[in-house]
């Protein structure tokens, strides 16, 4: 079945929130607060400066998504596009859904004048790392640190 990529619409909010809950649990065994998550997804639609979602449809049914956010690089005088919140439903995995989402995001980034694409991946998620490498992405030499409030 063919896979079509499209910008997400508000009618996708429930799917996106559900998929983010599932992704957080699958990758980090982290139980997110569903109400906070839904507000977070809605905020992307309310304020486009935050980014945008892409949705993959297979046979007219949504089967996956990703979020693109922006990071200004003063070194390059342009935006890196960050790929986040990637999720593909179990029944559509290993069918090229992420590849299609990535290719679409890459094309949009180039057309918008972005300076590159970035994403982060769990250190133990070797399958995802192989997928990203297979798409031509390279591991950076940075570690990521954070403080949550």
Automatic annotation (TrEMBL):
* Transferase in keyword set: yes
Domain N-acetyltransferase: where? 3-149
**Pfam families cross-referenced by the UniProt entry:** Acetyltransf_1 (PF00583)
Give one GO molecular function term.
Answer: acyltransferase activity, transferring groups other than amino-acyl groups
Highest taxon above the source species: Bacteria
Cite the entry's keywords alphabetically: Acyltransferase, Transferase
What InterPro entries does UniProt report for this protein, alphabetically?
Acyl_CoA_acyltransferase, Bact_Acetyltransf, GNAT_dom
Q: What is this protein called?
A: GCN5 family acetyltransferase
């Amino acid at each position: 079945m063919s896979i079509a990529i499209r910008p997400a619409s508000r009618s996708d909010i429930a799917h996106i929130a559900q998929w983010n809950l599932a992704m957080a649990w699958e990758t980090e065994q982290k139980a997110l607060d569903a109400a906070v998550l839904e507000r977070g997804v809605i905020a992307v639609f309310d304020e486009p400066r935050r980014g945008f979602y892409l949705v993959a449809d297979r046979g007219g049914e949504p089967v996956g998504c990703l979020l693109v956010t922006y990071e200004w690089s003063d070194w390059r005088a342009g935006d890196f596009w960050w790929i986040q919140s990637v999720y593909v439903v179990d029944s559509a995995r290993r069918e090229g859904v992420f590849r299609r989402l990535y290719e679409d995001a890459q094309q949009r980034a180039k057309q918008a004048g972005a300076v590159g694409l970035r994403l982060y991946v769990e250190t133990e998620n070797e399958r995802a790392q192989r997928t990203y490498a297979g798409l031509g992405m390279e591991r950076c030499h940075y570690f990521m640190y954070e403080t949550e409030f």
